[in-house]
Amino acid sequence: MSNFYDYAVTKRDGSKLPMSDFKGKVVLVVNTATGCGFTPHYKDLEEIYEAFHDKGLEILDIPCNQFAGQTPGTDDEVHDFCTLNYNTQFDQMTKSDVNGENALDLYKYLKSQKTFAGFGKGPKALMMSTMLKKIDPDYKNNAEIKWNFTKFLIDRDGNVVDRFEPTTNMKTVRAAVEALI
Q1: Among 30, 34, 35, 47, which residue's Cα sits nearest to residue 88?
Q2: What is the CATH number of the domain that holds 153?
Q3: What domain range includes position 80?
Q4: Rg of the chain taking only CA atoms, in angstroms
């Protein structure tokens, strides 16, 4: 049976980053986009990173262009956007798929560990539900990533402990990270 540490992703320079490099750390894995209504999550992600990186947090930023083409540009352009607009210190990986036959094996694993559990309540949740019903009427019944800025939280032992949809308040994400630090 596989675990988080069995996987790897590709860095912007083309080299492989094995998840085993994160043994003993708390990891937040997030599929991102530069032109999405949730793109301001980068600000909160950077604040979380600054608060907890020295205590063992890593953020694994995986840009994805599968949701309405909201991540145009090259990997370097995505990186430049993030550093210029949000002063991110965590690096962005190469743009990758999180759903479908070309999905990263890491994402296949993450989705097998924590499936979709809903968008919660509020206007953003209602907006996402309404939009997704048109795209995939059965969206509630599968583990697929629904949109940009879905986050998976991995503890220091490599266990996938939570999945946060993009509609989740970033204060909730921060509190969950802090509880593991």
Answers
A1: 47
A2: 3.40.30.10
A3: 4-180
A4: 15
Residue 166 tokens read as: 């993009």
Any idea which residues carry the catalytic annotation?
A: 36
Residue 159, token pair as written in the block: 């266990």
pTM of the model: 0.96
Mean pLDDT score, 48-53: 98
Count of structural domains, the chain: 1
- Spatial CB neighbours of 179, under 8 Å, sequence gap ≥ 6: none
| Matching residue, tokens 């991110």 | 88
How many of the other CB atoms lie within 10 Å of CB of 124? 17
Report the C-alpha gap between 27 and 19 in whole angstroms. 9
**43 falls in which pLDDT band (50, 70, 90)?**
very high
Q: What are phi and psi of 173, to 5 degrees?
A: -60, -45
d(CA 100, CA 5): 22
